[in-house]
Amino acid sequence: MSKMTRGEMIAQALQRAGNNSVSLTFQARIRLNRILQDLHQGWDWPFLWTTATLQITTDGTVAMPADFLKAEDDQALMITVANGQTMRRPVQEVEHKIFEQRAVDMGGGTIPRVWTIDYKRVFGLVTGRVWPRPTNGATATLTSVARWPL
């Protein structure tokens, strides 16, 4: 099948339906535009995936990039440097309630193992929290979807 324009798609669909009136053509164009817009906005376009380097503070907070929308998956945060050591260790993303339970249960340690994202924007930024908290801070990479540039 060759590429078709919107007008050709609408004309062919109306021809099959047996009604080519002008008012129906206008309504069909609006309906097709809405369907295409929903498909366009619902797709994770590859050019929106970004990898950012983040700093984890000693109090366990992580400031997400300004264009952050959502993490790639539940192991999108990767510790790259902790306690002066270079590594590549994923941090498991968990829900807020599970994070609060594990923050009590896990005890010691200095390399974060779990994290949660607070999507509520404070001063325009989304933040995350890790546990256990790194004693000297840490560096991590985050693979995420960025917001559409407006």
Describe the structure.
The chain has helices at 6-17, 22-42, 96-105; strands spanning 49-56, 61-63, 68-71, 77-82, 85-93, 114-122, 125-131, 138-146. It is α+β, with helices and mostly antiparallel strands. β4 and β5 form a beta hairpin. α1 crosses α2. The radius of gyration is 23 Å and the shape is elongated. The model has no long low-confidence stretch (mean pLDDT 86).
Strands, helices and their partners?
Layout: H1 6-17, H2 22-42, E1 49-56, E2 61-63, E3 68-71, E4 77-82, E5 85-93, H3 96-105, E6 114-122, E7 125-131, E8 138-146
Parallel strand pairs: 5-6
Antiparallel strand pairs: 1-8, 2-7, 3-8, 4-5, 4-8, 6-7
Helix pairs in contact: 1-2
Shape: elongated
Number of helices: 3
Number of domains: 2
N- to C-terminal separation?
34 Å
Largest sheet: 8 strands, mixed
Secondary structure tally: strands: 8
| H-E string | HHEEEEEHEEE
- Structural category: alpha+beta
Mean pLDDT across the residues is: 86
Q: Low-confidence spans: pLDDT under 50, at least 5 residues?
A: none
Instruction: Give the proportion of residues in helices.
Output: 25-40%
Task: Report the β-strand fraction as a percent range.
Answer: 35-45%
Radius of gyration: 23 Å
Multimerization status: single chain
Describe the structure concisely.
The protein folds into 2 domains: 6-42; 46-146.
Name some characteristics of this structure.
150 residues, 29% helix, elongated, alpha+beta, eight-stranded mixed sheet
